[in-house]
Design a protein that fits this description.
- The chain has about 1950 residues and is of the alpha+beta class.
- The chain contains 40 helices and 24 strands.
- A hairpin with a 4-residue loop joins strand 19 and strand 20.
- The N terminus is likely disordered.
């Protein structure tokens, strides 16, 4: 339901058009055609509503109705009478005269169409959703309902809330408001409006600074609850999927003091499945909206909602909901409600965990033939485990293979994919629901204010209404069961109020319990072997199925309970059973109910969560047992006793608590209705509305009304409306009641149709319509009578008109005849000629002329009157001037003399004043010193005054509270007085009735006496039965004690057994771990020994190969030497042959070619030479080839040998290193083996001891089991006997109940009147005694309580005796004889009568006792509060008196100082008088000389000249005074300007202070940010430590696996020892990989060193930052203290300034009073000088303030300089880091060289070293990532600090500018002071020039004479004009 209109500006709009039926609408409704006898409603099958028609005819039980021109036939019970039009838009539908379904629907529809959404229906307030906003929830609307009763204002939810509040305040009882309805009807919105109403009108007013008020917290619970509890449904975009009961607590004065809430039945099935048009809870989509920046990162979420299967099955967005805005509101609400940051993010993480669990359900994959569930991709599982704070591998294992207890062993059970997915879904639902409950509990903790007293509360229940769907499941039956209980509660409450009103009004009425109508259905749910009991039993039975559950329900309930029926197959063919509710018959489908009720959880996962690191999840499952190591043997018994494990039992427990709470409150009911399914404003679907009225109980409530007297009217209203029916009889009646009776008798209405009460007349349903018909008939008769009279009057008037016309015709005829007769008469002709000339006949002419003149005069008269008034005013003014001039002429001589005297005195006084000014300046200098001391004293005074002001404020607040309490008490007294008067009237009536009752009472007492005789006889028989019953009870108690002792022993032994079993299991686990470690060490030892042997064999082989290769090298060396010798020889032969060839060639050339022989010889020789050359070349080629082959072979052998030597050396070093490592490992293994052997010996000892303890405990357990079996057998016997006794007691109770019912019908009237009379008498007595005195009332109440307790005890004793006698008689009846049945029945009837009377008296006494106790407690509480208030006021008065004395002392000191100042002033005044006397004497002498000189002049001048001179002097004196006034005004204006400048300076100072405060706040924020960052860093360090620990564990596991792999490699190596070539190839590959690994190691080591250095640097920076933060805090505190001191000094200076100004003003006033002789100019001069001096003081203060601000700015500049130095230090630090980086680079080069050496060493390391290095590399990578993240965060922090430094520098610049402005202001003020001094000097010059102006008087006198002449001329002209106007 929409809230109020959000207006922008202006007042709240008027809500009246949406609340009150307008007169126009009433007239429109009354104009509707209506036939009281024929207009009826008939059903309309088209829309499920009704249509209006007219009855055509009636044929037995069938009626023909004309509906829109078509005649249809209906049954009589389908037709409903139409209410008269005056009842349309009725505020309360219970007041309708016809209460059929159609009438109710029509009234609701017509109000809704006219935008009236609230309607009453008896106790209900019906709210129909308007689907648009109306301005009816504003503060203006709240004011309309505040303090009003329900019948004083139109229907509204605020009226219900106000009624609940008034009921709570007046009666002291707790109240409740029940709001129900379908989804989308507006329940939650109405709940919010109720809470907002209470938060507005009942605001506590208490609000700590920086903390949200209680009202804000109550209102802020809505965003959180809506986000985590609301979802989109088909009908509503924001539907609450849970019920809640909100209790709003109030204190004794009616102010808010806290709130709490309880939630019911959260819809968990929506979490894992949504329909296509629905959406999951808003929280999931709010989290994905990016409203909180870092939320997704912390919750491991992506950016797409479609990535999460659980929450994306339906809609993922809603147009009417802004998820981002809602998330922002929810996040702010968490802060307002007091959630810490960790708690808030834990809630978010739990919510996100459920989203990841949905994805995890899709990761299960079937494996093997049994389709065992496994997870291949564990990404989602890792996220779930990270958010839940548990291990991912174990979580996956336990989801796929949960642990179960089989016998005494734990077994892992395999799960299918569907079972594992269901297990994950169950955990997800449990996490969400339990997180939601914890959020609600946290909200309750923040909403309850422990400091405020809680007296009463108002509870608001917001829960779903009755639901009927096509498919009705587990949630629907829970909701309908709740509504069944609530409807019974409403029926009982509603008709209880009705019947109380009937009794109060004195109606003859027998009480009826309408709650019994619903009791059968409720019993069918709640009784043993009822629906809930069978449901609970089947849920706990492991092999139960839906089919077995359905069969059990049908076998136990069908046919035995009326409300259990077979299902209707029409809406749901698969339904299993139906329940007949009050609203309708609902068919339920119980598929999946058992699983929903069990809500099974994987106990192993719960145990992991409870031991995890997520604190909120641990808190969620704190009440869950988890999976303990050992299950107790009596587990089954505990399950039966638990009762809270299933959802239904938990829900029933909550419902029982809720109903108990509601029955203790005064309820108010609101029903919310959905008008249509299309959310269309103004649209109505009648079938839907009627269905909701049926489900909400509205029609049931109206049906109850129809059985009573629903229509009631006050006698005054009845008389006013129906007086017309019997006016004569009413006029004769003495009171309204007899008048109403006379009217009803006059219309002959049956007595059964109405009742006459004391103040009202009551009617049955439909009678008011009959009354309206009779009234309309009567009005018709009256109207017809009036019409007849009116028509007769009109006819008579017409007749008179015709009669007058006839007489006029006669007159006309007579006149015409006379005219024709006179026409021939001569005298008549003469007369006709003479007549026009007569003056009397010209009257019209004269009249026209005079009328013209009158019109002209009237047109000009206003102008003439205005001119006359103006002339009169001028004349009066001139007369006054004339008189003034005459007076001035007469008194001119003395005035001139006075002026001359004044001028002489002024000249003398001027000199004196100049001297006084000098003296006063000196005094001012001295006074300034005194003022400085006064200011110091004034500071103390101002501090005391400030403290006194605060105390006065506190006292004023206390006085206001007392005044409010007094007003409330006055109102209560008024209401009590009204009630007393009303009660007195009722008492008078009851006394009259009491007399008539007395006679009947005597008869009843006689009957009681006879019954008492019989009771005495029965008492004797009862004694024997009591003895036997006591013996049975004693035996039963003994058995119970024995059983309790046995159970205690059993529990104790079970606890010991658990402890021993846990200890044994721990020891066994330790033993297993140690055996595993021993085995692992043994394996390692054997592998190490085998490795040593292998290395030794390899070493021997390698040594042999080395020897062989060395011998071969020696042989090759020898062959090389031989080859070198042969090569040298060949070289020598070659050189010899080359020389021989050269000699031969030379010889041949010398010999020449002379002969042919020689030529032939030459040819032969050449051929031989060629052959020799070729042979030589061939030999050289062969020799070179052999030499090259030898060289290549030698080189190959040398390289091979070198490589072999190197490899052998490396292998030798490696074997030595491995040998040393193995020796160390062997030593460690031996030491570990020794320790494990010692531990094993200790464990064996402990095992023996525990086995002995186990044997002893088993023997004890066997003995206890035997004792337990014996106790069980005896218990069974006792239970059988107990059941027999219970059966007997139930039979007796049933007999008593039947007899009581027979008795009620005979004695109700008598007992009611008796009880009312007694109650009224006691109430009157208590009220009268209350006004006599509280003490006497308390004593009387105590005495009365004691008496009532004694009576109660007597009655209880009599009742117990009567019950014993009943049992005795029953036993006799069963054993002895059946003949005395009649006697026993009569005696039982009488006995039951007495028992009933005793019970009623007990009830009445209990109620009275409780009422008196309440009044006593209330009076005592009020008395205590008054005493406390008196003590507080007395203490405050004492404190104020003390402070007043201190203040008087201070005032006395100031008075003494003022007296000293007055003494000084008097001394100065005496001196002034002396100076004045001398001045007067000198002036007298001067005047004498002047008079002697001017005697001749005065004699020569005329009297007129002297008069002119005097007048001129007088005018000049006036002008001089006028100039002085102008000067004074100008100085005052300048003073105001100075004050404005001062105020500007003060405002600038305030701005500076605000800036200082803002800087402090920002500094605090920076501090908080630094602390938060530090905390986050610490959390990151903890996380990295945990990750490192986990990584080390995984590294250890991988190391073990690597060792096993190494052993396998050694075995493989033994097999392939002979294959050296393959080994060398493998070695080459290993060398290459090793080289690469060494390079990466080298790189990572360098990075590690850099990261370690950076980490150390960052840690150092962090320490420095913390130190700087501490220093900044200290500086901030120091600055704050200085600022406070400066502010206090400023305040004290201002107060001292104001006080000194006041004192100076007083002093000036005294001086002015004493020196009245001085002229106004001198006083003005003195005042101006005083103002100047005060301005000097103010300027000095301002300069001081400016100095202070300069000092502050200097300090700020120092701080800025310090920050700049820090910045420089940071820059230097960066430079040093860069230098260190360069040094590290050089070190890196060195390390690379070392790395080459390490490569050689690493060749000898092997796989173990590789594994270690890889683990180290991973660790370093993790540390590197964490360090990089930290460095990035630190860099961000550094950037923020730099930004902060810039902001501070900017603020310093602003402070400098402000300082410059202040200095400029000071210079301006100094300039103004200089100008003031100049103006003072100019004023003195003007005063001196006044004498010169005296000479101009003659000219001005002539001008005045001219003015007088002109005035006389004007006056004469005015007189002439006036005289002319007169004439």
């Amino acid at each position: 339901m929409p809230g109020h209109i959000k207006k922008t500006t202006g007042p709240d709009p008027d809500p009246s058009p949406w609340l009150i039926v307008s007169p126009e609408l009433k007239e429109k409704n009354k104009a509707k055609p209506y036939d009281p006898k024929k207009s009826v409603w008939v059903p309309n099958k088209a829309d499920g509503g009704f249509v209006e028609g007219l009855i055509e005819s009636k044929d037995g039980a069938k009626i023909s109705v004309n509906v829109k021109g078509e005649v249809k036939v209906f049954k009589e019970d389908q037709v409903c009478q139409v209410n008269p039009p005056k009842f349309d838009c009725s505020d309360d539908m219970a007041n309708l005269t016809y209460l059929g379904d159609a009438c109710v629907l029509w009234n609701s529809v017509i109000r809704y169409v006219n935008e009236l959404i609230y309607t009453y229906s008896g106790l209900f307030c019906i709210a129909i959703n308007p689907y648009k906003r109306f301005p009816i929830y504003t503060y203006r609307t709240m004011e309309l309902y505040t303090g009003k009763r329900r019948n004083e204002c139109p229907p509204h939810i605020f009226a219900i809330a106000e009624g609940a509040y008034q009921g709570m305040m007046n009666s002291g009882c707790n109240q409740s408001i029940l709001i129900t309805g379908e989804s989308g009807a507006g329940k939650t919105e109405n709940t919010k409006k109720v809470i907002a109403y209470f938060a507005t009108i009942c605001s506590s007013g208490k609000k700590k600074e920086g903390e949200a008020s209680l009202e804000d917290k109550i209102v802020q619970t809505n965003p959180v609850l809506e986000a985590w509890g609301n979802a989109k449904t088909v009908r509503n975009d924001n539907s609450s999927r849970f019920g809640k009961f909100i209790r709003i607590h109030f204190n004794a004065s009616g102010k808010l003091s806290g709130a709490d809430m309880v939630v019911y039945l959260l819809e968990k099935s929506r979490l894992t499945y949504q329909q296509p048009l629905e959406r999951c809870y808003h929280a999931f989509y709010n989290i994905m909206s990016d409203a909180v920046p870092d939320l997704k990162e912390k919750c491991l979420l992506s950016d797409n909602i479609l990535d999460y299967w659980y929450v994306s099955q339906g809609k993922i967005s809603v147009p009417s909901i802004d998820d981002k805005e809602d998330m922002m509101f929810a996040d702010e609400a968490f802060d307002v409600l007091g959630f810490t940051e960790d708690e808030k993010y834990d809630v978010y993480k739990n919510t996100a965990c459920m989203m990841h669990m949905g994805n995890m359900t899709k990761d299960f994959v079937p494996v093997g033939k049994e389709e065992q569930a496994e997870i291949k991709d564990d990404t989602n599982a890792i996220k779930v485990a990270a958010l839940a704070g548990i291990d991912a591998e174990w979580m996956i294992n336990y989801f796929c293979k949960p642990k179960l207890k089989v016998g005494t062993e734990w077994v892992n059970k395999g799960s299918t994919c569907s079972a594992a997915a269901n297990s994950v879904a169950g955990i997800a639902r449990a996490i969400y629901e339990r997180s939601f409950r914890i959020v609600v509990e946290k909200c309750n903790e923040t909403l309850i204010d422990p400091t405020m007293k809680k007296v009463q509360y108002i509870g608001v229940l917001d829960i779903a209404g009755f639901e009927i769907f096509d498919y009705n499941g587990f949630e629907q039956i829970c909701i309908n069961y709740v509504n069944e209980k609530l409807q019974q509660f409403f029926n009982q409450h509603m008709f209880t109020l009705e019947q109380e009103e009937y009794v109060r009004e004195g109606l003859d009425w027998a009480n009826v319990d309408f709650g019994m109508d619903l009791q059968k259905c409720i019993d069918m749910f709640e009784k043993p072997m009822g629906l809930l009991a069978i449901f609970e039993e089947e849920s706990l039975f492991p092999k139960a199925t839906d089919q077995s559950f359905c069969e059990k329900l049908h076998s136990n309930l069908l046919g035995k309970w009326e409300n259990f029926a077979k299902p209707n197959p029409r809406p749901d063919p698969d339904a299993h059973f139906a329940v007949i509710h009050y609203a309708a018959v609902v068919s339920y489908n119980l598929t999946g109910w058992l699983e929903k009720n069990k809500d099974p959880l994987n106990d192993t996962i719960v145990e992991m969560i409870k031991n995890g690191s997520n604190s909120l999840m641990i808190q969620c499952f704190a009440d869950h047992p988890g999976q303990p190591l050992e299950t107790p043997k009596d587990d089954g018994g505990r399950k039966k006793k638990g009762g809270g494990k299933t959802v239904s039992s938990y829900f029933k427990g909550q419902l029982d608590d809720l109903m108990t709470t509601l029955y203790k409150t005064e309820p108010h009911f609101i029903r919310c209705v959905v008008p249509n399914t299309h959310k269309q404003p103004g649209g109505v679907e009648p079938g839907l509305v009627m269905h909701q009225y049926q489900c909400n109980g509205v029609l049931a409530g109206i049906a109850i009304c129809r059985k009573g007297f629903p229509n009631k009217m006050i006698y005054a209203e009845f008389k006013a409306r129906y007086n017309i029916l019997a006016a004569k009889a009413v006029a004769k009646c003495k009171n309204d009641k007899s008048a109403a009776g006379a009217v009803l008798d006059a219309i002959k209405l049956e007595k059964e149709k109405y009742r006459l009460g004391h103040t009202k007349v009551f009617f049955r349903a439909g009678i008011l319509g009959f009354m309206e018909e009779v009234r309309e008939d009567k009005i018709g008769e009256v109207l017809s009578w009036l019409q007849a009279g009116a028509r007769g009057k009109a006819s008579r008037m017409q007749f008179k008109k015709l009669q007058d016309q006839k007489l006029a015709l006669y007159c006309c005829q007579r006149t015409i005849r006379n005219y024709y007769i006179g026409k021939t008469w001569l005298w008549w002709q003469i007369w006709m000629l003479v007549k026009p000339h007569l003056k009397c006949m010209q009257f019209g002419k004269y009249k026209a002329e005079y009328e013209k003149k009158i019109a002209v005069a009237e047109a000009n008269i206003d102008k003439a009157i205005a001119e006359c008034d103006a002339v009169i005013k001028i004349h009066d003014r001139l007369e006054n001037e004339k008189q003034e001039l005459h007076l001035a002429l007469t008194s001119g001589g003395s005035a001139v003399q006075d002026i001359i005297d004044k001028t002489n005195r002024l000249e003398g006084m001027k000199n004196d004043l100049q001297k006084q000014v000098d003296e006063t300046k000196k005094r001012i200098a001295a006074e300034e010193d005194v003022i400085a001391g006064i200011q110091q004293a004034g500071n103390k005074v101002t501090a005391d005054a400030h403290r006194l002001r605060e105390e006065i404020k506190n006292l004023e607040n206390a006085a206001e509270k007392c005044e409010e309490d007094r007003i409330t008490k006055d109102n209560q007294i008024k209401t009590l007085k009204e009630e007393i008067s009303h009660q007195e009237e009722l008492i008078a009536k009851m006394q009259r009735e009491k007399k008539s009752v007395g006679d009947g009472r005597q008869k009843v007492e006689e009957d009681i006496q006879s019954m008492e005789d019989r009771c005495n006889h029965l008492a004797k028989v009862k004694g024997k039965l009591e003895q036997s019953l006591d013996e049975c009870e004693d035996a039963l108690e003994r058995e119970k004690k024995c059983r309790g002792d046995v159970e205690k022993m059993k529990r104790k032994i079970e606890g010991d057994l658990k402890l021993t079993q846990e200890a044994v299991s721990d020891l066994e686990r330790v033993k297993a771990e140690l055996s595993q470690t021993i085995q692992r060490k043994e394996k390692e030892l054997s592998s190490l020994s085998a490795k040593i042997e292998d290395e030794q064999t390899l070493g021997g082989k390698y040594s042999k190969q080395i020897k062989e290769l060395q011998s071969r090298i020696e042989e090759l060396d020898e062959e090389l030497a031989i080859e070198r010798q042969n090569r040298a020889k060949a070289e020598k032969n070659r050189s010899i042959l080359s020389r021989d060839i050269e000699d031969i060639g030379r010889r041949l050339e010398e010999a020449g070619c002379n002969t042919s022989t020689q030529i032939e010889l030459n040819k032969k020789r050449e051929s031989e030479l060629v052959k020799l050359k070729s042979d030589l070349e061939e030999a050289n080629i062969a020799h070179e080839g052999t030499l090259a082959a030898i060289r290549a072979k030698h080189n190959n052998t040398m390289s091979d040998m070198g490589e072999q030597i190197d490899s052998l050396n490396k292998m030798k070093a490696k074997s030595d290193k491995d040998k040393a490592g193995m020796e160390r490992d062997l030593q460690e293994a031996r030491a570990g083996l020794d320790e494990s052997m010692r531990d094993r010996a200790n464990i064996e000892k402990n095992c023996k001891m525990t086995q002995a303890l186990i044997v002893e405990s088993n023997t004890k357990l066997d003995e206890l089991a035997r004792a337990l079996n014996e106790a069980d057998s005896s218990n069974k016997k006792l239970s059988v006997e107990h059941q027999d006794l219970i059966r007997q007691i139930e039979e007796t109770e049933n007999a008593i109940a039947t007899l009581g019912k027979n008795k009620v019908s005979l004695t109700t009237q008598l007992e009611d009147t008796k009880r009312l009379a007694d109650a009224e008498g006691r109430d009157r007595a208590s009220l009268l005694t209350k006004f006599k005195g509280l003490s006497t009332e308390v004593e009387n109440l105590r005495m009365r309580i004691e008496e009532e307790a004694e009576r109660k005890n007597d009655v209880l004793r009599a009742l117990s005796k009567a019950q014993a006698e009943i049992q005795l008689w029953r036993s006799k009846f069963e054993t002895e004889a059946l003949g005395r049945i009649d006697e026993l029945e009569s005696s039982k009837a009488k006995l039951n009568v007495r028992v009933q009377e005793a019970e009623e008296t007990i009830d009445s006494l209990n109620t009275k006792v409780s009422a008196t106790e309440k009044t006593k407690h209330r009076i005592e509480a009020e008395l205590e509060e008054m005493q406390m208030e008196y003590e507080r006021t007395h203490a405050a008065a004492v404190i104020t008196e003390k402070r007043g004395r201190n203040f008087d002392k201070v005032v006395g000191e100031w008075k003494a100082k003022a007296d000293d100042l007055l003494a000084e002033l008097e001394a100065s005044r005496t001196e002034c008088r002396n100076y004045n006397s001398e001045v007067f004497r000198l002036k007298a002498a001067y005047e004498e000389t002047v008079e002697q000189l001017d005697v001749v002049r005065r004699e020569n001048k005329n009297l007129a000249d002297e008069i002119k001179d005097l007048l001129d002097q007088l005018g000049d004196g006036g002008r001089s005074i006028h100039d002085l006034d102008k000067q004074r005004r100008r100085l005052e204006v300048e003073k105001e300007e100075l004050q404005a400048a001062l105020e500007e300076a003060e405002s600038a100072l305030e701005q500076e202070e605000n800036k200082v405060l803002r800087a402090q706040l920002e500094l605090g924020q920076v501090k908080q940010e630094i602390d938060r960052r530090i905390q986050e860093k610490e959390e990151e360090f903890d996380n990295t430590r945990k990750n490192h620990a986990r990584a080390m564990d995984s590294m250890q596991a991988s190391l073990e696996s690597e060792q096993r792999a190494k052993a396998e490699a050694l075995r493989i190596k033994k097999k392939i020892e002979g294959d050296i070539n393959e080994l060398e190839i493998a070695l080459d590959h290993a060398n290459k990989a090793n080289n690469e690994a060494q390079k990466s190691i080298k790189r990572y080591q360098g990075q590690l060193r850099e990261s370690e250095c950076a980490y150390e640097e960052e840690s150092r920076m962090r320490a420095e930052m913390t130190e700087k933060a501490c220093l900044a805090d200290r500086r901030a505190n120091a600055l704050h203290g200085e600022m406070e001191e400066a502010r206090s000094l400023l305040d004290s200076a201002e107060r001292g300034k104001k006080q000194t100004e006041a004192e100076l003003a007083d002093a000036r006033n005294a001086v002015n009073e004493m020196n009245t002789i001085n002229s106004k100019a001198a006083s003005e001069k003195r005042r101006v000088e005083g103002i100047v001096h005060t301005m000097h003081a103010e300027i000095d203060d301002m300069l001081q303030q400016a100095k202070n601000s300069e000092e502050k700015s200097k300090k700020a500049m120092i701080d800025a300089a310090r920050l700049a130095d820090e910045l420089r230090a940071e820059q230097d630090h960066v430079n040093t880091q860069s230098k260190a980086k360069r040094a590290f680079e050089t070190q890196l080069v060195e390390l690379e060289n070392k790395l080459d050496e390490a490569n050689e060493n690493a060749m000898r390391g092997g796989r173990a070293a590789m594994a270690k290095l890889e683990t180290r590399i991973r660790e370093l990578e993790i540390e590197l990532g964490s360090v990089q993240s930290r460095t990035s965060d630190n860099a961000k922090g550094h950037q923020k600090c730099e930004r902060r430094v810039k902001e501070l520098s900017f603020q310093i610049d602003e402070d400098k500018k402000n300082q410059e402005r202040m200095s400029e202001l000071a210079t301006k003020l100094q300039q103004k002071i200089k100008t003031y001094k100049k103006q003072i000097e100019e004023a003195e010059e003007i005063a001196a020039l006044n004498l010169a102006k005296f000479r101009k008087a003659q000219q001005e006198l002539e001008e005045s004479e001219e003015r007088t002449r002109m005035a006389e001329g004007q006056l004469s002209s005015i007189r002439q004009t006036r005289a002319g106007s007169y004439f």
